[in-house]
Every structure is written in C-alpha cells, then in structure tokens.
Amino acid sequence: MIRVELPPPLCALAHINGEVVVDVADRDTQRLVLDAIEARYPMLRGTMRDQRTGKRRAFLRFHAGGRDLSHESPDAPLPDAVVSGAEPYLVVGAIVGG
C-alpha cells in the first residue's frame, strides 16, 4: 500500500480529503502508482500526466523520500520509506509567479 498526498485542486476534483492509499500489485514505481490513482479516480486522468505521452504535467512535481522524482524514470523503484508506508508519495503543485 502506497500513501499518496495530492494537491488541493486535484483533491477537490476527485472529492477526496488530501491523502489516498493505493495498492500497487507488482512493483512500486511512479508509473504504477499514478496508474492506480487514475484507475480509482478516473476524473484525474490527464491531470497529472499527458494521456498520450505519459509525461508529467508542467506544473506538477513528484516527491518521495525527501527527493524530487519529477525527472526520474517513471519505472524506477520508489524509495523504501514510501513503499513501507512510512512516508507518502507527494504530488505537489508548482508555485509560479512573477
């Protein structure tokens, strides 16, 4: 079981309260976690990554185990602390401004 914290706009869209728990069958990777979230909350499809290319959306970042995983391979294993449930996988909305 992987704990996932989503940003407030995605929580509102999916009618959830901040953190969700998803079960990833085989391996614990970013791709499979996002697949599980989108399967459970279909209204989130296309909000975190492009549906055609699979690339993350420009204004979202992915963090786990104190590291920014946004530019890592989506098939790389998640940190042990996230896999064990000690820490959540974070989907963070980027802050922009000028």
Can you characterise this structure?
With 98 residues, the chain is an alpha+beta fold. It has a single domain, classed as Ubiquitin-like (UB roll) (Roll). Helix content is 22%, strand content 20%. The chain is built from three helices and five strands, in the order βαβαββαβ. It has a five-stranded mixed β-sheet. β3 and β4 form a beta hairpin. The chain is globular and about 30 Å long. It starts with a strand and ends in a 5-residue tail after the last strand. 17% of the residues are buried. The model has no long low-confidence stretch (mean pLDDT 90).
Q: Proportion of β residues?
A: 15-25%
Distance between the termini: 39 Å
> Largest sheet at a glance?
5 strands, mixed
Class, according to the CATH hierarchy? Alpha Beta
Mean of the pLDDT scores?
90
Q: At the third CATH level, what is the topology name?
A: Ubiquitin-like (UB roll)
| Low-confidence runs of at least 5 consecutive residues | none
Report a brief summary of the structure.
The chain is an alpha+beta fold. The protein is 22% helix and 20% strand.
Write the layout of secondary structure elements.
Elements: E1 2-5, H1 8-14, E2 19-22, H2 30-40, E3 60-64, E4 67-68, H3 80-83, E5 89-93
Parallel strand pairs: 1-5
Antiparallel strand pairs: 1-2, 3-4, 3-5
